[in-house]
Amino acid sequence: MDGWTGQFLRVDLTSRTHRVETFSEEFAYRWIGGRGFAVKILYDELAPGIDPLGPQNKLVVAVGPISGIPAPNTGKTIVAAKSPATGGYGDGNLGTRVTDQLRKAGYDALIIEGRADRPTMLVIDDDRVEYLPADEVWGKGTLDTNDWIYARYGKGVGVLNIGQGGENLVRFATVRSLEGRSGGRPGMGAVMGSKLLKAIVVKGSRPIPQAFPAEMKELGRDDLKAVRAMDKEQAWSVQGTDGVLPWCNEVAALPVHNFRGTHHPDAWMVDGERANAVRMATYGCPNCTMRCGIAVPDEQGRESEIDYEPVGLLGPNLDIYDMAKVGTLNRLCDDYGLDSISAGGVLSFYADAIERGAVEGEPLFGDAAAFARLLGRIANREDEVGNLLAEGTMRAARAIGHGSEAYAMQVKGMEISAYNCKYIPGMALAFGVSPMGAHHKESWIITYEVRQTDRGSYGRDKAQKIVDLQRVRGGLFESIVTCRFPWVELGWGAEHYPIYFNKVTGKDWTLDDFWPMADRIYALMKLFWLREYPETDRYADYVPDAWFDPDNADTEGPIAGMYLDREKYDELLGHYYDIRGYDARGIPTRATLAQLGLDAEAAVAEEYATLA
How many CB atoms lie within 10 A of CB 357? Predict the structure, then answer.
């Protein structure tokens, strides 16, 4: 079976045993890899209602058929589990040497079950699997842990590890790799921590199976050069993702003061140009052609690898306009193993609750030192406040009350990424309908919406665009598995990816052949949610009340007096459901599931809720 190793490695931490399992060619072509493999495995194997932080949850590390081959930006891996943040399916995509090393070891996915009896490091070296004590680094941050592993195994191995946030089961703890790679916003780091799994080390020596390896090697070499040349010509890597900050500020889409503001005159002080001016180093994922990891100095002069999301959420959203202070907060998040997006959202929510009188204490907006202290309290669950905020914005707001849920900027338990959608209906809907929670990577419609359409419209075209983008970003790229940046930022055509797929598998697919697979993945993610929340309805796909509140509208600037229309948002949501073949609750119908070949999954879903 060219393109896949055809094997999963299943590890039981409780018994310290493992076994190799095979999968069929039919399974491979139905689910492709990465997210597809992960959601199918978790849906089939997890019982409804299990505790995401209990031993019954499973962590899946999965790659795809083009992962790790020499082609533009293929060094990506999926980490997935039932989400501690949302209770639904959760995953993350991160650049790591695990990508090629896992494939060279002979596996397309690693399935981790049970719970170790002590802090453990899982080491995989081809057929050999070891469970080694990790007591020496338990309690340490991800940076020291990474160095400790490299000192023992060399920098060529693949590494996934967690910090104190994962160890202490912070619901938005991530998995970390390399110098600054991070993935698993829905709490994948907490799942590792719940299993007392400090780190995973992978080393392989076998060739990655490909139908036409010589042709793929030549094509990959040429395309790597081509995309690097495009990046050099367009100078995208000069500012990286933080280059979008001035645009967000200009069009009133920047999160300021817990999303209450949309732009600020001092935003330029933390933009991509300023990041480039103080750049200490640049990092990227394996096979990267456009390195986006710009390291800036924190307040102590140490490297802090930033991009737009943490800058937006840890900077303007906290009323901080000093790059070094943002760098300090970002480095703390990285070292603690906390998602910087969710951390920024949690911190801004709590400061807002203080400002509005719902609670008393610190920090106040703009107090970077107090925010830094609070991050430590959260990562270590040190006290009542740290423990509360470690639960995430949604649960913290429910505990605090006093109307705070209205300005808890989250969807389904996941904090909103750094795009303020007070008057951007399509992007708001993209946040709302993401089956994982408010994540921008699922359908980044904002530039299309603001630049090419009537920004304030709620037409069916926007719903269709969201579906189209989900198919490419959340379906194609998350299953084959590769980075979306060459396509998003440089205009490297999506048609290149079926060519890579065909070279490694021997198939003759076009882009259109991937869309049923993408729709199948999204439908199963929805069924996963339905199984956990049988009473779910369309309001699960709503964004925070603050965006519908006329009293929260800007009083000046490009969108002064404008806000989302709740009734029109619901109409736009209806268009999305109709295009997807979902019912009024946002659940795939029997007919849709049958068309996608999910009859067996539909039968399971019927045990928990009636399907239309």
Answer: 8
Q: What is the DSSP pairing of strand 281-283 with strand 293-297?
A: antiparallel
Rounded to 5 degrees, φ, ψ at 19 are: -150, 155
CATH number belonging to domain 235-420: 1.10.569.10
According to CATH, what is the number of the domain 7-203?
3.60.9.10
On the CB side of 191, CA atoms within 13 Å amount to 35
- Backbone phi, psi, residue 360, to 5°: -120, 150
List, as one string, the DSSP characters of 510-552: -HHHHHHHHHHHHHHHHHHHHHH-TT--GGGGPPPGGGG-GGG
Q: What are phi and psi of 321, to 5 degrees?
A: -125, 45
What pLDDT, in 10s, does the model give residues 295-322?
Answer: 999 999 999 999 999 999 999 999 999 9
Strands (E), 327-368: none
pLDDT 10s digits, 399-448? 999 999 999 999 999 999 999 999 999 999 999 999 999 998 889 999 99
Quick one: CATH architecture of 421-612? Orthogonal Bundle (1.10)
User: What is the per-residue pLDDT across 183-220, written as a single tens digit (0 to 9) for each?
Assistant: 999 999 999 999 999 999 999 999 999 999 999 999 99
Q: Where are the domains of the chain?
A: 7-203, 235-420, 421-612
Distance CA 262, CA 268 (A): 14
Structure tokens at 299: 């307040």
Of 232, 8, 42, residue with least CA distance to 124:
8
Strand 89-95 and strand 175-177: the pairing is unpaired
Place of tokens 């094509």: 219
Question: Which helix (H) or strand (E) segment is 129 a member of?
Answer: strand 128-133
* Helix, strand, coil percentages for the chain (3-state, nearest 5): 45, 15, 40
Residues 6+ positions from 362 with CB-CB distance below 8 Å: 354, 370, 374
Which residues is 62 bridged to in the sheet? 78, 109
Name the region of 166 (left: φ>0; alpha: ψ -120 to 50; beta: rest): alpha
DSSP character string of 197-233? EEEEEEE--SPPP-SSHHHHHHHHHHHHHHHHHHHHH
- How many whole angstroms separate alpha carbon 230 and alpha carbon 469? 23
Tokens of 504: 């490694």
Measured CA to CA in angstroms, residue 466 lies from 33, 241, 456, 469, 473 at distances of 22, 21, 16, 5, 10
Q: What is the pTM for the complete model shown?
A: 0.98
